[in-house]
Write a structure and sequence with these properties.
By secondary structure, the chain is mainly α. The chain folds into 2 domains: 2-82, Helix Hairpins; 90-182, no CATH class. It has helices at 15-18, 27-41, 51-66, 69-72, 90-99, 104-108, 123-130, 132-141, 145-157, 161-182, and strands at residues 2-5, 8-13, 77-82. Strands 1-2-3 form a 3-stranded antiparallel sheet.
């Protein structure tokens, strides 16, 4: 349930949400979740600016469940979410990247935000739309068809071909690294 307020949205969550567990969790599971989160967010360990507030919420949630108040009902713990920052559009990000020197982090943060006109087009059609010269450059730089398709999609969205190739490579490395750390 979200209640609108002037400074942003107020998100109402339960003690179980705070501890990231189901409402059917045993007391042992509750304690393990509490210890896991305490190790992660204790202000002596976590250097994020909101670590103290997070730890307070974790303590309140643990106490509510442990004392029996949270087993059947837990008082809501409210967090005020700030209004999201105004982000540039994808077209603005592409235009800026085409005229500036950008690093791979900037390229990785360029997101389509869902599906667009190029998302579902297969490689042969992308190659027809891009033209022979562009396809030759992409084939020379990228060996995998998946990466070629990604580069051509970014080129067709408006990114210059050098940046489109770098974008495909940066995204591929980012997601490979992310998969490696997750396992």
């Amino acid at each position: 349930m979200i209640d609108k307020e002037e400074g942003g949205d107020t998100l109402v969550i339960t003690a179980y949400d705070v501890l990231e567990i189901s409402m059917n969790a045993s007391l042992d599971e509750v304690k393990r979740a509490y210890v896991r989160l305490a190790k992660r967010y204790h202000p002596d360990v976590c250097k994020e600016s909101d670590a103290l507030d997070r730890m307070k919420n974790i303590n309140l949630a643990y106490e509510a469940i442990r004392d029996g108040r949270g087993r059947w009902w837990s008082p809501p713990i409210e967090t005020v979410l700030p209004d999201p920052p105004e982000l540039p559009s994808l077209a603005e990000m592409i235009a800026w990247a085409n005229t500036h020197t950008v690093d791979n982090d900037y390229l990785i943060n360029m997101l389509v935000g869902g599906r667009d006109a190029y998302s579902e087009i297969r490689l042969p059609e992308l190659e027809v739309r891009a033209g022979e010269d562009i396809v030759r450059r992409v084939r020379g730089a990228l060996r995998l068809d998946k990466l070629r398709g990604t580069a051509l999609r970014w080129y067709l969205r408006g990114l210059n071909i050098e940046l489109a190739i770098r974008k495909a490579q940066a995204d591929d490395k980012f997601y490979r690294d992310k998969a490696r750390t997750a396992s």
